[in-house]
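Narrative of accomplishments. A recurring question from our advisory board has been how the design workflow behaves on a single, concrete structure rather than in aggregate. To address it, we present the structure tokens for one chain from the evaluation set, followed by the sequence designed for it. No filtering or post-editing was applied between the two.
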């Protein structure tokens, strides 16, 4: 796997410093969350994008573009607008711009999610899924035109929050779209063990998020603080031959970013060694 760390966990660092530290700690990938202070897709110049591309190349780092920034579109409403809202134009442009930046950086994928149901909506979930299917097909095509993969993430609290919701969307589309799986989200939302889903969706699994979690509680925890069996999960990833990006996602740990990233890398190295010995 291409083990990385998400820049959302370095919220108080400049992007160039975060990337340098991630490389120094031995990671080989960066989950780059486009944000107001980290390569803002609406204000960053071509020169700034090129500088990041050169830095990644110099450090030998691969990259995944993440689009889960909280207030980049609306400073007052977290994660709004979404693909499900009537006023979704800025979200669509954000994702299209993410595809362009991904191409410029040679990124492996663009990760995104459905968004929560519109506020005070009377629209049925079936209609919202139809709306989502329309946008997902467009985003898949736009990313393909840029030579990168689109990877849709089921997210607790959003319209598409479970793997059964993903299956429903795939039925509407007539194909299975590219997928981001967050290991913690599986523990939070699903009933079967994580490794069963990794095996079922291995053909469309383009991106992976690493964090611990407890059933029914959507909070990203450091490894060992939740109930995920990481040794078995890593063994499963080895069994299915997954070689894509797998980035630690611990945004709440930004106040102790460097120490957390170091401890996370040590944990992953240890669990990878133990799973390989199984």
């Amino acid at each position: 796997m291409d083990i990385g760390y998400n820049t959302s966990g370095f919220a108080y660092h400049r992007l160039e410093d975060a990337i340098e530290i991630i490389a120094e700690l031995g990671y080989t990938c960066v989950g780059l969350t486009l944000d107001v202070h980290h390569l803002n897709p609406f204000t960053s110049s071509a020169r700034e994008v090129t500088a990041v591309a050169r830095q990644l190349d110099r450090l030998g780092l691969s990259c995944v573009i993440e689009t889960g920034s909280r207030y980049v579109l609306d400073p007052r409403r977290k994660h709004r607008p979404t693909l499900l809202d009537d006023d979704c134009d800025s979200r669509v442009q954000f994702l299209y711009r993410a595809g362009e930046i991904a191409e410029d950086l040679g990124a492996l994928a663009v990760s995104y999610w459905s968004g929560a149901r519109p506020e005070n909506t009377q629209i049925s979930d079936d209609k919202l899924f139809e709306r989502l299917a329309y946008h997902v097909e467009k985003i898949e095509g736009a990313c393909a035109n840029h030579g990168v993969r689109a990877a849709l993430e089921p997210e607790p609290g959003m319209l598409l929050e479970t793997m059964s919701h993903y299956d429903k969307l795939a039925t509407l589309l007539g194909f299975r779209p590219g997928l981001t799986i967050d290991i913690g989200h599986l523990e939070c939302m699903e009933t079967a063990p994580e490794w069963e889903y990794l095996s079922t969706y291995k053909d469309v699994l383009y991106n992976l998020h690493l964090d611990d979690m407890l059933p029914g509680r959507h909070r990203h925890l450091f490894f060992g603080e939740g109930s995920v069996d990481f040794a078995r999960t890593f063994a499963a990833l080895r069994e299915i031959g997954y070689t894509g990006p797998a980035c630690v996602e611990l945004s709440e740990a930004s106040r102790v970013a460097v120490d957390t990233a170091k401890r996370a890398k040590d944990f992953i190295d240890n669990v990878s060694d133990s799973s390989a010995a199984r």
